[in-house]
């Protein structure tokens, strides 16, 4: 039976948005994910811990550990200001080194506000000779291809299964969608390749400032609020390549977003087919054991989103695994009590 309150109302309404992982995890099994949510179980295994550690190692390869932190815990704006600083730092790393990792991104897919962190963004053959410390004139790019990579940890040498590959592809496509709509000047140049990326969304948010203001309003954030002298000092110390007077004139969410947007707008980038890659890495060595390159598919993303939206907003009963994927149930802690298995009379004995 359907619940009176949706999963979104119960577990995500207080935040006001969904994480990209919220939209992807139910692809494995919606019934299992519902069990986790309703019982407030946060799954954390040794394998997951190794994956987190590997991601941290990869991040520190491109940028040193940051000491940025929330200084005023009563402020709703500071956590988002820190994310904007990380974006600004990421764009500068792209220009300087041709790669950045752990890039926060947010926005909308259709009616849902979404937040995520892109594992890796890189440029093909970037120039390192044009760097100038003044943000007002340091961008002087030629045209470079932009690539997105999502790093996944593998605990065996076998090729990932179809379900794992599907969820990984959908996750990365969400990131690309958010990135292109966050920086619409990139998307406008690539209409021939990404012409099917959420046209309804693009039309509704035709004005760049409109979507930003709508997002702030939805999360009850004040874009004009000054972040204070301590946060300003932190910004200056954490990104010394940006002049102090620039930060002083942009010490608010609106101000920092304007810096990020202006910086990214000056990047002369292009997006090409097959610019999305899933890199599966050995959990112990970090070496890439398998790569999957693919192109953006709005048809696949929209179909996946529709299912996820229905799941989170209680528009239908959660769906478990189909008969051909019942092998997933062998390692599920809810196997013995699973109402879906009982309903379908599946027996989790099949081999993958």
Question: What do these coordinates show?
Answer:
The chain has 352 residues and is an alpha/beta fold. The chain has one domain (49-301). It has 14 helices and 7 strands. Strands 1, 2, 3, 4, 5, 6 and 7 form a 7-stranded mixed beta sheet that branches. The chain is globular. It starts with 6 loop residues before the first helix and ends in an 8-residue tail after the last helix. The model is unreliable at 127-141 and 189-206 (pLDDT under 50).
Q: List SSEs in N-to-C order.
A: HEHHHHEEEHHHHHHHEEEHH
Radius of gyration: 21 Å
> Please, what is the average pLDDT?
85
List the quaternary state of the chains: single chain
Strand content: 5-15%
Q: Termini, distance in Å?
A: 30 Å
List descriptors:
single chain; 352 residues; alpha/beta; seven-stranded mixed sheet; 14 helices; 7 strands; 42% helix; globular
């Amino acid at each position: 039976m359907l619940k009176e309150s949706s999963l979104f109302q119960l577990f995500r309404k207080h935040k006001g948005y969904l994480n990209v992982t919220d939209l992807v995890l139910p692809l494995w099994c919606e019934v299992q994910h519902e069990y986790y949510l309703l019982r407030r179980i946060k799954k954390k295994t040794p394998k997951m811990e190794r994956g987190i550690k590997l991601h941290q190692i990869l991040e520190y390869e491109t940028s040193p550990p940051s000491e940025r932190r929330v200084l005023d815990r009563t402020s709703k704006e500071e956590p988002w200001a820190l994310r904007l600083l990380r974006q600004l730092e990421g764009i500068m790393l792209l220009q300087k080194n041709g790669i950045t990792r752990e890039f926060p991104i947010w926005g909308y897919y259709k009616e849902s506000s979404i937040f995520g962190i892109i594992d890796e963004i890189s440029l093909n053959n970037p120039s390192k000779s044009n760097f100038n410390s003044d943000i007002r004139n340091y961008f002087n790019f030629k045209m470079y291809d932009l690539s997105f990579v999502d790093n996944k940890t593998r605990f065996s040498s076998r090729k990932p299964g179809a379900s794992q590959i599907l969820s990984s592809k959908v996750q990365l496509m969400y990131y690309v969608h958010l990135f292109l709509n966050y920086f619409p000047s990139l998307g406008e140049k690539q209409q021939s390749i990404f012409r099917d990326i959420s046209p309804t969304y693009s039309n509704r948010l035709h004005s760049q400032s409109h979507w930003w203001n709508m997002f702030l309003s939805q999360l009850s954030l004040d874009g004009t609020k000054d972040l204070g002298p301590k946060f300003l000092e932190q910004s200056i110390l954490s990104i010394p390549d940006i002049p102090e007077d620039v930060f002083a004139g942009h010490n608010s969410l609106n101000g920092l977003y304007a810096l990020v947007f202006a910086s990214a707008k000056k990047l002369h980038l292009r997006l090409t087919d097959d610019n999305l890659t899933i890199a599966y890495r050995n959990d112990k060595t970090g070496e890439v054991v398998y790569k999957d390159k693919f192109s953006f598919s709005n048809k696949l993303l929209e179909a996946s989103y529709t299912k996820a939206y229905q799941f989170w907003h209680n528009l239908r009963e959660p769906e478990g695994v189909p008969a051909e994927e019942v092998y997933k149930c062998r390692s599920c802690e809810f196997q013995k009590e699973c109402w879906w298995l009982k309903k379908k009379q599946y027996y989790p004995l099949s081999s993958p």
